[in-house]
Amino acid sequence: MHSIEYTRVEIVGDGGPLDLASFMRLSQLEPDAVSHLVDSGVLEPLGRTRAEWRFPQRAVVRGCMAARLMRELELDEASIGLVLDLLEERDSLRRELAML
Amino acid sequence: MRYLDYYQVMGLERGATQEEIKRAYRKLARKYHPDVSKEANAEDKFKELQEAYNVLGDAEKRAAYDQLGRRQPGEEFQPPPDWGRSSGFSGQFTGGDAEFSDFFANLFGGANASARSGARTSRSGRDHHARIDVTLEEAFRGGERVLQLKSPAVAADGRVELRVRELRVKIPAGVTQGQQIRLAGQGESVPSGRQAGDLYLEVHLQPHPRYQVDGRDVTLTLPLAPWEAALGATVPVPTLGGLVELQIPAGARAGQKLRLRARGLPGRRPGDQFVVLKIVLPPAETERGRALYEQMKRELPFDPRSDLNQEPPCTASNTHESR
Known about the structure:
Largest interface: A-B, 33 and 43 residues
Helix content of chain A: 55-70%
Order of helices and strands of chain B: HHHHHHEHEEEEEEHEEEEHH
Order of helices and strands of chain A: EEEHHEHH
Helix content of chain B: 25-40%
Structural class of chain B: alpha+beta
Number of domains of chain B: 3
CATH architecture of the largest domain in chain B: Orthogonal Bundle
CATH class of the largest domain in chain B: Mainly Alpha
Oligomer: heterodimer
Distance between the termini of chain B: 74 Å
Strand order of the largest sheet of chain B: 6-7-11-10
Radius of gyration of chain B: 30 Å
């Protein structure tokens, strides 16, 4: 009925930071949303100009999460930074709590 | 296929208004969103919720669903023979992630691809996105997993069915929380000559009973006996790669953090293992145990509350009776 296929895998961003096009494809963020998230410091790509932007692993993780939360919880770009910061803080408090 | 009660999923009465449906969705979405919720079954609940809202939140689909009448959830169920014609949904097959149930696929023709799939260009296949649960041990050593991919396909009789294929995937050693694994060409398939989409799996590290994980670093709480902390000791400490001997300095305090370099998750810059010390008191349950505590009490000039017994430096002069 079905067959098992073998497939090649790669870790995204393991070969170095992603350029804007790859980052948008992966995070499913629109260009305007990326600009807004960079302007508000939610995403911190390397490089000064838009053309030079390179997204390191951490920005990729944050960007994907931001995109999902905005889409699925109808959050806007202005509030997403606060939400991500609070979630990170909550997770780190949970880790500390678990160590006690 | 089994009947799903979308109203029950959303905790709503059948007569709920569209406003109430939207409100219920937003409330439950915040509760069960997998990025926010820590409930064990959050992801399944959230998928169910999205599916229910996809139908009930859309007046046309809702009307068609309501036409089916009320049944017991889980009841074996076939859509009426004229379903395709009367509902007008049979032609809406869109491909996509097939995150939704057989029930949904049969009635509404596959997951609404826009929900989770991004189009690369109009010509190539869409990328699909999914999560993969990975244990910390797998993240450390790498692992192998067989994934079942379901995709809706139109069968010979025109009905939509879910086809299953299995994919053997190597999980590379050193993956961390939130990282994406790309499976090139395993997204939406398209007629030959065009490029198939990719499948992205987002790594979801499962909580570990022993280690806390932060990026590539792991932290372990290490219990010590009071004399080990006071006098120093060499104690065996578990790491992801096996036991190592750790030197505890004399005078170690509870909450102190020691670092085992490069004993965390592997990578170009491997993570570290942190060891947080915790001091565990031996119980005074036996006569000998009590005698030893008694002896310490007599012979050690030790006041654990010396800080509390002094007047606080600044506030002392400000305190006065308020009544």
